[in-house]
Amino acid sequence: MSNTEAAGSLDLQRERSLISLIPEAAPVAAPDGPIARNFSDLDVSSEEGPYYALDKAWVRTFQVPQEEQERLVCRGEYGLEYLFKCFLWFSELPAMTANDGLFLLGERIEALNRLTARSSLYREYRPTNVRTR
Fold it and tell me: What is 36-56 written as a DSSP string?
């Protein structure tokens, strides 16, 4: 399986759909907020690989109490859209296939999908015809 095929099997499209449904009432992420701050300057080491850099940023951003996690569900250039683009970029890196990097990236994407779907802002405005698993 090529890297492009493997990346296509990630659930990025579901996250794209969930992001598009974040209501206008949701806060707009700040350029210096936790997502942009932790995911903007990733030092990808050739020894540790790209997943290590991604995971380090993920831990800094999302290993916080649930209430703080829900506040990360925000719109705008530096919100979940920023994270989506970051995940997309990582999914296309050839080195992500080493050491199950794409599988581990898929785990992070699924965790983000669950967080987005369970966020109180999203639940409040979610259309009834959208499945959240």
Answer: HHHHSS----TTT-HHHHHHH
Whole-angstrom Cα distance, residue 65 to residue 125?
Answer: 23
Both tokens assigned to 123: 């639940």
CA dihedral sign, ordered 28, 110, 2, 98:
positive
Please give the Cα distance from 8 to 29 (Å, whole number): 27
Residue 44 vs residues 48, 106, 108, 119: alpha-carbon distances, Å: 8, 18, 17, 31
pLDDT one-digit tens code per residue, 80-98: 999 989 999 888 888 888 7
pLDDT tens-digit series, residues 10-59: 767 777 888 887 888 888 999 999 999 999 988 888 888 899 999 999 99
CA 56 vs CA 25, 62, 81, 122: distances in Å = 30, 10, 19, 27
Count of alpha carbons within 13 angstroms of residue 32, beta-carbon side: 0
